[in-house]
Amino acid sequence: MQKKTIFDGQKIQITIKRLCRQLIENHDDFANTVLIGIQPRGIFLADRIQSELQSILKNKKILKGNLDITFFRDDFRRKDGLVTASSNSIDFIIEGKKVILIDDVLWTGRTIRAAMDALLAYGRPEKVELLVLIDRRFSRHLPIEPNYIGLQVDSLDSQHVKVSWADEGAEDKVILLSEKQ
Amino acid sequence: MAADKLSTRHLLGIKDINRNDIELIFETADNFKEVINRPIKKVPSLRDITIANIFFENSTRTKLSFELAEKRLSADVVNFAASSSSVSKGETLIDTVNNILSMKVDMVVMRHPYAGAGQFLSRHVKAQIVNAGDGAHEHPTQALLDAFSIRQKLGDVAGKKVVIVGDILHSRVAISNILCLQRLGAEVMVCGPTTLIPKHIHQLGVKVEHNLLKALNWCDVANMLRIQLERQDIKYFPSLREYAMMYGLNKQILDNLDKEIVVMHPGPINRGVEITSDVADSKQSIILEQVENGVAVRMAVLYLLASQG
Q1: What is the pTM of this model?
Q2: A71, A82, A87 member nearest B43 (Cβ)
Q3: Which of B39, B102, B111, B300 could form a disulfide with B28 if both were Cys (CB 3.0 to 4.6 A apart)?
Q4: B-chain residues within 8 Å CB-CB of A82?
Q5: Do residues B187 and B161 lie in contact, with contact meaning Cβ atoms separated by under 8 Å?
Q6: From the CB of residue A40, how many other CB atoms can be counted at a distance below 10 Å?
Q7: Which residues in chain A are contacts of B73 at CB distance < 8 A?
Q8: What are the pLDDT digits (tens) for A141-169?
Q9: A123 close to B (CB below 8 A)
């Protein structure tokens, strides 16, 4: 297995700051906008975005929830092994809100398809946007594109992109894993 | 962290599953409990699965609970009650089920008056079988939801003392509960008149007590079983009134205990026999929570079984 670091430390921090500025550009003071991190890996980025936004918009409360998509996946019974569900925690109303879905890596788009379905079980949002740290472009199975992108990466289907976070005891880092030839 | 799949393809009894399976079911049920409390209580996981509910014996709660669980997972559901079917014309069990399966059914939830009917069927048909009660043998989903309810109320099942009171002899709920609670590390006692306690029950490692007050003073949880008059072909006690006086739980007994115990009942309640109305409706009773948890636990069982279908 070959590992190549494609993004780390300071650069990730700068990128998160840039993403937050872009969000503010479109969503002003977040009066009607909420953040939703996709379980299990998107919640770390969502936490970072939330605290960064909070430090910029000091007097506003930035709402953030976690969404689990396990029961909405389209590969249930089609692949080996069971994906264990994570918890949902959305303690505000989605109805009529602008929702920013947040995940670490966008690859085939199937997770986001499931997330949109899962989200609708909580009500009808006014608008849904997608923010990702890593966009593995040219690898989509579905017509889904992100609105906010940290970094675009060209990768092969056989490769794997893994994001680790300081908040889970590792360090902020994005690595590209490829099988040894 | 529980295992990532069940060790079995069917749920025939608690006897066939291990502690990891039970913990996986509970963790999954936690997620489904959140799902059924949302504005839209449905997930699409089982949308390509058809489930037949085959009930050769009467049931209200279990059948309704399974049906709701199936529908909230988006499965297609067919219901079949033996009384209105060709079984009364003499068809065998395997023929009945195979006929249903040839209409492309993936899973069968079955209740049957004979012990082992689920086992038998699982050996002869292709579909996955969920036992919803077979005679006086097992009722695994009831035991799972009872243990899940104890876990929810008291935080954990391990180390808790649970007494099962009443008609142990005819009760599939009792057997499944004993096995399930023991797998999870609880201590179990059975309590009832000598005639309703099976002779060799102590071999399962349970305590036996014939005095209700002693049993209640020992326990953290009392599971009050229904007297199953329909299964009693001879008289096991002189009268219902006498049973109620000896083994019925009333508010006065409950209030005079040194500690606050949790009261459970698998339903349907014979109010005034096993427990009085004021006990059933008291804040120590978790009877209605049991019913709510039943749907979540059954969703978890169906979902986990389907994942390896």
Answers
A1: 0.89
A2: A71
A3: B300
A4: 4-5, 304, 307-308
A5: yes
A6: 17
A7: 71
A8: 999 999 999 999 999 989 999 999 998 88
A9: yes
